[in-house]
Amino acid sequence: MNAAIEPLKARRLYLLLREQILSGEVPDSARLPSEPALAQAHGVSRVTVRRALDKLASDGMIERRPGSGTFVNARPARMPVVADLANALTHLVEMGRQTDVRLISFSYVNATPAMAEELKLDPEERLQRSIRVRLIDGQPFSYLVTHVPERIGVSYSEADLASTPLLELLERSGLVADTAQQIVGATLAGPEVAAALDLEIGAALLSMTRVVFEKSGRGIEHLQALYRPDRYSFNMELTRTGDQGARRWAAADTFRLSSRSRANGNKKKTRTRSETASPVRRTKP
């Protein structure tokens, strides 16, 4: 029983110390209490304390200095990736160029009914399925499961996918990403994902599902992405718009576009997805 409880205690202590560091309660460069002192203060064993500190050290949040002690590093050297939701497709290509990728699997599979409907596939059309892990500074931050229609997937190889952003490969084959439907949420890490992202099973993850369409309306990519929230975040610039009494938040880029349209004499009202109740955001590259 103790063997099962100790990792949970270490996780709890890790989260407690992490929150104290991030909130500033324990300031940057401060010296942490010794392992025996932490064990006594929190009612746990030194093994539990060491596990919690090991995790903080791997996150870059503390620095162990032999002979001096353990010190807080509230500004880790590894900066998290920040995705611009207002320019999502362009960001994907740029991120692919600036990060490393590890290709875990590459195969061709039959499409599920749901996948066939989302991508608007022809009857019996198969899919190319790949699983990749993206890394920044050698550390994994995203787990990507991609499905592409077989007629498109045959235009590039495993080696291409391991070295070039997928959207770039698609456009190199003559396809142009026009629009996308995207849902952002949260989930928990299963065993395979946890191992790939260097996390504990059940760790919280950001999730994103994106379906990319060409101008004809047919789907060219289905992406299921899972992100470590400590190494990846979504960002969107908003602006306050609308008439008095009906004010709302809108994506800044869309608002600027709408304002230019009015300035050019366009009387037709522009309505964006961000102004509706739908959780699905439609973006253009």
- The helix/strand order is HHHEEEHEHEEHHHEHEEEEEHE
Widest β-sheet, arrangement of strands:
4-5-6-9-8-7-13
Integer average pLDDT: 78
Quote the distance from N terminus to C terminus: 53 Å
- Helix fraction, binned, reads 25-40%
- Strands, total number: 13
Structure annotation, total helices:
10
Give me the secondary-structure category: alpha+beta
- The biggest beta sheet, please? 7 strands, antiparallel
Q: If you had to describe this structure to a student in words, what would you say it looks like?
A:
The protein is of the alpha+beta class and 285 residues long. The chain contains ten helices and 13 strands. The chain is globular, with a radius of gyration of 23 Å. It starts with a helix and ends with a strand.
Task: Give a quick set of tags describing it.
alpha+beta, 13 strands, globular, 34% helix, 285 residues, two-stranded antiparallel sheet
Topology, please?
Blueprint: H1 2-23, H2 35-42, H3 46-58, E1 62-65, E2 69-72, E3 81-84, H4 88-98, E4 100-110, H5 113-119, E5 126-136, E6 139-149, H6 150-153, H7 158-163, H8 166-172, E7 179-188, H9 191-196, E8 204-213, E9 219-227, E10 232-235, E11 238-241, E12 248-251, H10 252-263, E13 281-283
Parallel strand pairs: 3-10
Antiparallel strand pairs: 1-2, 4-5, 5-6, 6-9, 7-8, 7-13, 8-9, 11-12
Short description:
The chain is of the alpha+beta class and 285 residues long.
